[in-house]
Amino acid sequence: MEDRFGAPLELVAGIDLAFLGNEAIVACVVMDFPPQRVVETHFLTTVIDFPYVATFLAFREGPAIVRAIHSPRTSPDIFLINAHGIAHPLRCGCASHVGVQSGKPTIGVTVSRLYGECSVVPHEEGEATALNIGKEQVGWVLRSRIGSKPIFVSPGHLVGLDSSLRIVKASLCGNKLPEPMHLAHVLARGVIKRPKAGETEP
């Protein structure tokens, strides 16, 4: 949980998944930092054969995410993963797991809380409060956009608590999720909706 990423940050990547049956689309979008332009986009498809088991998401989605982390032609300084980091009952959610496996700095960013409590829910845009497990802070509850529910940010690997919040806040561009993750989300779901061979566009 220490900052071991290159400074200053130049490239940040977002990774998100979409599912169609047992097939997963894993999308990765690399942007400059702070995000202004897209540097690279790519996706991969894979069959997921591990069942969903609560708190063990890393064993279901982790292998595909690690492949996506190693896929960019560019070299992102940090990866924002749609999964939990240390805000997890075992202190090692999927974002931490894939960070350790890949050796890359990661931050977990999700729209739902898995574990931990906050004393006050932030109301103002850009406001964040601590997410705690007992007396230990494991992340942040961040109001990323007025009119949306807060998001949950936690360090994954090679990133500290303060830096995880700073990087996520600097990556917001008017959407609920940081821009690289938002675009990865759009890309993954766009691929799912593409017509298959023999089908025509609606």
Descriptive account of the structure:
The chain has 4 helices and 8 strands. With 202 residues, the chain is α+β, with helices and mostly antiparallel strands. It has a single domain (11-192), classed as archaeoglobus fulgidus dsm 4304 superfamily (archaeoglobus fulgidus dsm 4304 fold). The chain has an 8-stranded mixed β-sheet, with helices on both faces. Strand 1 (11-20) and strand 2 (23-32) form a beta hairpin. The longest helix has 14 residues, at 179-192. Residues 197-202 have low confidence and may be disordered.
In short:
With 202 residues, the chain is of the alpha+beta class.
Task: Produce the secondary structure layout.
Elements: E1 11-20, E2 23-32, E3 38-47, H1 57-69, E4 78-81, H2 94-102, E5 106-110, E6 128-133, E7 136-142, E8 151-157, H3 161-170, H4 179-192
Parallel strand pairs: 1-4, 4-5
Antiparallel strand pairs: 1-2, 2-3, 5-8, 6-7, 7-8
Percent strand equals: 25-35%
Rg to the nearest angstrom?
16 Å
The end-to-end distance, rounded to whole angstroms, is 48 Å
Number of helix segments? 4
Whole-number average pLDDT?
A: 94
**Overall number of domains:** 1
Q: Any key phrases for this structure?
A:
alpha+beta; 4 helices; 8-stranded mixed β-sheet; archaeoglobus fulgidus dsm 4304 fold
